[in-house]
Design goal:
mainly alpha; 17 helices; globular
Length: 443
Amino acid sequence: MTTMNLIETRPLKPLFLSYLFPAMIGMLLMSVNILVDGIFVSHGVGPTALAGVNIAVPIFSILLSISLWIGMGGATLYSIALGRHNKERAHKIFTLSFVTMLIVVVILIITLLLNLQDIAYIFGANDSTYPYVKEYLFIILLFGVFYTIENLLSIFIRNDGNPKLAMAGLITTSVLNIVLNYLFIFVLDYGVTGCALATVISTMIGAAVLCFHFFRKQSELKFVRKFFNWSDVKSVFAIGLPSFIVEASVAVIVILYNVTFLYYLGDNGVTAYAMVNYIHTVLLMMFYGIGMALQPIVSYHYGARLMKRVTALLKIGIVTALAFGFIIAVAAILFPSQMMAVFGDSTMDVRQMASQGFVYFAIGYIFLGINMVFAEFFQSIEKTRLATWIMLLRSIVLFVPALIVLPIIFGAQAIWWTFPVAESITALLIFYYVKKNPKVIST
């Protein structure tokens, strides 16, 4: 049975689960790479180096946002083409997406390398953290193109009916990153440079593992010579825009949080947020995993005009996201100090600040999953404007005013409330809109 026939005929819950677990594990492992960097740097180099690496984390978000923007936009069109049994168009979309991403990423990396110091200070570096930021960022940027290739390939491989290989590539990257971090930091004493080297080497090998998909008989991922079309380029960027916003906004949010914590609570506040942000990065990527599990099968069914199955998939996604959000929120409320204890070299004051803040911060996960599922759903059925508005509301329109106003009114502790306030209001607005316009999810 072909991949296309399997998607159309398989019961929805087993079909969704067959994509969900590999997608969530894959996203978890992708974020664990960043978490592992933080843990090894914290224990092997020190808390100031940890703050420096955290300031550099938005670069990951920027690179990931480009690969998600083009990858998710292209993959949506790719799955819709497969749903319509138009393989020739699917091949063109894949080639176009890959080449376009390479061009954009190379230009971006060159620009960032030429302005490294200015970028670091904009992101929140100061004289004590900049040497670590520079040391880490230079290597990450130099080899950053492999990070984006791995992510784009994993997206398309998942859309081509092989979510297990997409997961296997990310498992390879994650395991190697742990081993190499230990080797470079604790054995060879390379410090932050070793951490960056571990990340790029493991990513390159993980991307190589994904290339095995091209030798699979059922693979529809094929490079073709004639692929360029301005209309398709515009469609890829338009449909992928919500994915770009959600990941690019992570960089903006981290920068704004760093600047705000530095203003109200000094270096201790930045370090406390760094600890919370590493945990948040892992959890956020797992919520991405729910959306990424939905996207291939929703886009395919939408292309095949199987709208009852499309609506049913949305409901399954919402229930999954809600359950996951409640579990995380409860765990964070009950065990915040245990979660922060992984960053062992921080002072007691910093660890206590991070633990108390995470209790408030984690309430936002109850609503985050709903917002991510709806945005991914609308993106998957080419309702890009709705998906874009959801992402702008939660990350810019509501977040920025809340970050400014809450600490002014309620004090520095209220900085932690910004995330749950923005996410909860966004979720309420989504449900209000869908209630007023029910046809938006069924046509």
